[in-house]
Amino acid sequence: MKKLAEMLPGKVSTEPEDLLCYGFDASGLQAAPAAVVWAQSAEDVAKILGFAYSNNIPVIPRGAGSGMTGGSVPSKGAVVLSLERMNKILEIDRENMSVLVEPGVINGNLQRELQRHKLFYPPDPASMDFCTIGGNVAENSGGPRAVKYGVTRDYVMGLEAVLPDGRIINTGVKTAKGVVGYDLTRLLVGSEGTLAVVTKVRLRVLPLPEAVITLLALFDDTARAGAAVGKILTNGIIPRALEFLDRGTIHAVENYKPVGFPKDTEALLLIELDGRPQTIAKEAERISEIIRNLRGEVTMAEDEAAGEKLCEARRAVSPALYHLKPTKINEDIAVPRSRIPEMLMTLNRLSEETGITIVNFGHAGDGNIHVNIMADRNNKEEYDRAQNLVKEIFRATLELGGTLSGEHGVGLTKAAYISMEIPPAELDLMKRIKGVFDPKNILNPGKIFP
Amino acid sequence: MKKLAEMLPGKVSTEPEDLLCYGFDASGLQAAPAAVVWAQSAEDVAKILGFAYSNNIPVIPRGAGSGMTGGSVPSKGAVVLSLERMNKILEIDRENMSVLVEPGVINGNLQRELQRHKLFYPPDPASMDFCTIGGNVAENSGGPRAVKYGVTRDYVMGLEAVLPDGRIINTGVKTAKGVVGYDLTRLLVGSEGTLAVVTKVRLRVLPLPEAVITLLALFDDTARAGAAVGKILTNGIIPRALEFLDRGTIHAVENYKPVGFPKDTEALLLIELDGRPQTIAKEAERISEIIRNLRGEVTMAEDEAAGEKLCEARRAVSPALYHLKPTKINEDIAVPRSRIPEMLMTLNRLSEETGITIVNFGHAGDGNIHVNIMADRNNKEEYDRAQNLVKEIFRATLELGGTLSGEHGVGLTKAAYISMEIPPAELDLMKRIKGVFDPKNILNPGKIFP
Lengths: 450, 450
Hints:
Oligomer: homodimer
Helix content of chain A: 25-40%
Largest sheet of chain A: 7 strands, antiparallel
Radius of gyration of chain A: 22 Å
Number of helices of chain A: 16
């Protein structure tokens, strides 16, 4: 580590405080790295990786550490490579509707900067105020707007990245289309920092929508809320967000940061429309009609500020749940949208059978449910029961044609379960692709693959 | 081959007529395979590949043979594996907005079937009336609607495919989102049949847009046509098609299939809007204003049938050009949209300097230009000059930040040029990924990589 500190003066720390701060992420998992290094350029990253490669030292790339599955939690003796200082927006190309950013740029900062240019970058993870674009690329992050606009993958045009042996590569194109060679760009997107360290990201952006309308729908019956979701979408309306909160989640939010949701509600839908003002006004009318026909109660946020307030409430869900129980096992399964009601019924059944509280919220429009299993890590018996539930939930998810993760990735927390979803031949291909990029297995080892 | 015929009775031919018919594609390249096999199931494909793998026989997967770069042209002694009989639409899941199809389904047939269900699959290559979804997946096909809706990659949710050694794999998810493991799905999309043979495709579909308006704009100056394109898009209007034809192309179409375009036009824009009727009526107004302000002449197709007629004309471009000269070297470069005027100027200069006719048309909205170098293959001197031009054009394209192919892929015709665009480290990664899937190099050998 001394040699590394000499190579990168002022950028390497072995202070206990830093080793502590950079040793965990939002999964709650924790381990102490051997050192933390802050890169400020692709060349820095190349130096660090070149050194680590020669000396067989594991390197853990890290954005804001807001990941949910331990993807940036270090293994013992590893170097944490923080990209947070590479936080510049390098280029806003309005003519070609693209931006070039460093990986440490905070998602929300990019959103705000683009807004000033009347541009729009849709992916909006709940952690948008602190998560980084580099982290979003590593995890292929989604967010409420995915139902209309897709996920991070759909916006990454090209990458600059550093291979584990220190070579800098460039993938993708600066053009809207490009089909020369294999799609290395999308192979890196969602690879959870196991194939290469991203040092520049070119993103496609869209024109800023002219207007936004937010609707809130309350139902005293979950099945009718589900029917409303189906009805809205099959009517040809694609809202930019179509979120649901179950009863347990509504209560938790109200207790943490009161918004004024009635307490006798079984299911809540939060619907955002964007586009031309007249178009979305019509769509809002039609949605209101659908909701009322299903005996839901609907209110429309009168202006964007009021709408934004409701969305803030949605983003408060995650912290609010920590007030229910000290530990939250947070899964992010996805099922085909039409299977959501069945999935919720199964979750309720499992909760009743085990006596463990499960609260659910998420993206009704795309079938991505955030399942929160509430327990106390310090109550061993309860925590074990909660852990056992995870496998049951995954089994039910896969039976409904779903996936173990819609947004959070595999990381450490789901690595033990990956073979429930990915069969041996496919898993073998993935491992051999890992070997192509990282033959010495120094980059984020132990993640994804058990 | 006799053994193969025994394994798959009635599905193998070595008739000279079949060897001829299945020996070429739209690139004009041709070679005789050793046999043609028509698979009717994934199991058939697995049998054929298993046999070929054991016996080191090259296998060339083939959809409709409408590819532009020789991707399905066999090498000597190879078996052509035709997927055209696997042409069933297996499932239309309206609730979850997805369809499951076999690879031999014709793109246009899927479009029409979906229309009956009020659904919409956007990718629309000019060859849509005969090209197959499997071929579209192999090439990551685009089409005019890519400017608004993206390309094939953006609609493929998951694949069933057969590895070169005969193992059947499944990639991707049935859900809108999924981030478990590496993105094998998008690695296969655009891999030009070199990694695996696709046997089932799950595609995302959209609600059918309520209405379409088509606009035709004529300019006596190319630069002003280019300015109109920029102006439309920076006004926040994203048409579902934004096509341009240059003077040479307009003349060729008129001579082949007269539509009534005035002959003194320098550039023509064909603009399609889709969405809610009132919204697009407003957008059409705004576009007309932009065009007139730039001294263009604009006409609006009064109904969908009239609009469809104009789009048919666009699709007639390719055959029309064969009437100019017997041989058409058809490149499909893409540049960042703002660089189109520079690119067209360079193309005109190169045409003047060499005396070779070059006509250009394409997708102005996404910078994808179809550059057609017109020559006679039987006039050796002229054809050599035309061939030399290709490299010049590629060099200019890359200097403008472009790519050698926006839609057609590399295949055989661009393999010699791939290293102009893809640097050694990236090319090496791609070749090693090929090795992971196809260690014996039996699947479509000689394509993409020189």
